[in-house]
Amino acid sequence: MKQSIGNKKIVVIGLGYVGLPLALLSSKKGFHTTGVDLNKQKIKLIQEKTSPFNDEEIQKELTTTSLQVSNDFAAVASADIIILCVPTPVDNHKMPDYGPVQSACESIGPYLKKGQCVILESTVNPGVCEEIVIPTIELVSKLRVGEDISVAHCPERINPGDKKWNVSNIPRVIGGFDEKSLDLAVEFYHSIIDAEIKPMASLKEAEAVKIVENSFRNINIAFVNELAKSFARLNIDVVNVINGAATKPFAFMPHYPGCGIGGHCIPVDPYYLIEYAFKNNGFKHDFLALACKTNESMHRYTADLVRDELAKKGVSIENARVAVLGLAYKKDIDDCRESPSFGIIKYLQEMGAEVVSYDPHVLSKSSVRTLEEALTGTDAVVVATDHAEFSGLSVNDLESFEIKSVIDGRNCLKKEDFLASSISYKGVGR
Ligand SMILES: NC(=O)c1ccc[n+]([C@@H]2O[C@H](COP(=O)([O-])OP(=O)(O)OC[C@H]3O[C@@H](n4cnc5c(N)ncnc54)[C@H](O)[C@@H]3O)[C@@H](O)[C@H]2O)c1
């Protein structure tokens, strides 16, 4: 007999940008849902109905939710479905770190029971479910996947800060270990998500879908970043060119250059494929690796623009004070993971500049607390994040602080106004 939603129990492991919205949605849809996270501070905040990250929707949901949260994995024992939403970072050498996935599997293993379904939502390269998730949970639980329990992969596609696309309306792809695994996972996602759920032929196919999506974005951004560097020498505004090309109603999708890419996904995920393909099959993803390198080169390129623009004003970078505006990797959010701002700051400091940073969404010990503090006594400004507070900056605002040069790392300022002013201005490719 089919269980009703109210009787089904869901456990979400990892309550970050991916796991917390999912757990809240599952609870809202009527499933008895428990969220488990290793981070005690995070659990305490959620219990106090405070979002651990800056997100109005999550904050609103938390005030009314019946979601239970805990540091204890014991809730897994009575769950029907266990969903893993733990991080998949790279280390300092850009090597995939499977540690959190492995350790989450080890933690749920002792509580697993026959009939349960484990779903991995974290972004991974093809092969991780079969080579890490399944062997680990089989080893720890002494159960057999396929015979006793089910395993599926449903990569998350959430885009934090996006007002239109969220966990409840983004279509999903799902791969299963076998037909039963696939059916269980498809049934669950159909009951919480109001969008297409596409079954894939295998776990590996589902794993590959997500890596391809994010590699596609990485490559396209790398292409326009390369164009930005080239067109700057030709005195062609690359943004105007991209907008021109975007009038073609088919076969062109605009991507825009900038001072670098950030976040837990786009700069990270391609390395999972690059490393796995080489280590396991001896295949070299030269094109994808070059795209990653091209995007990473934008930090240095941006720092060089600061040095060159200040030189035009007769100021040497060694004697300059530079304000980096924005530490978050994208507009109006507080997530700093892999943010290009840190690379830009490092290069500017290596050049001898005194660097001050400011972000209205990020309270960092090494940053100042107000825009005024950041701009006072400063020679050059780098707009590294297009937060509303920065994209609204005018020539008058910056002239009042006697700023000499502006590097618009997000091409979000009014270029024409700056070109007509006393401030030297450079965007990325414009
Ligand atoms: N952030 C995004 O925009 C996004 C979008 C789509 C997919 N993803 C993918 O989803 C996954 C999670 O990303 P995120 O941004 O939510 O990460 P996050 O760092 O915001 O959250 C992960 C949470 O997992 C917890 N955790 C780590 N190890 C654990 C363990 N062993 N057991 C229990 N909890 C553990 C951490 O404390 C943290 O709270 C990653 O694979 C990421 O690539 C992220």
User: How is the largest sheet built, in terms of strand order?
Assistant: 3-2-1-4-5-6-7-8
The rough form would be described as: elongated
SSE class: alpha/beta
Per CATH, what is the topology of the largest domain?
Rossmann fold
Work out the helicity level: 40-55%
- CATH architecture name of the largest domain: 3-Layer(aba) Sandwich
Q: What is the averaged pLDDT score? A: 97
What radius of gyration results from the CA coordinates?
24 Å
Task: Say what oligomer this is.
Answer: single chain
Distance between the termini: 64 Å
- Count of beta strands: 13
CATH homologous superfamily annotation of the largest domain:
NAD(P)-binding Rossmann-like Domain
Order of helices and strands: EHEHHEEHEHEEHEHHHHEHEHEHHEHE
Tell me what portion of residues adopts beta-strand conformation.
5-15%
User: How many structural units, i.e. domains?
Assistant: 2
The biggest beta sheet is recorded as: 8 strands, mixed
| Small-molecule components bound | nicotinamide-adenine-dinucleotide
Q: If helices are DSSP runs of H or I spanning 4 or more residues, what is the number of helices?
A: 15
Name of the level-1 CATH class of the largest domain: Alpha Beta
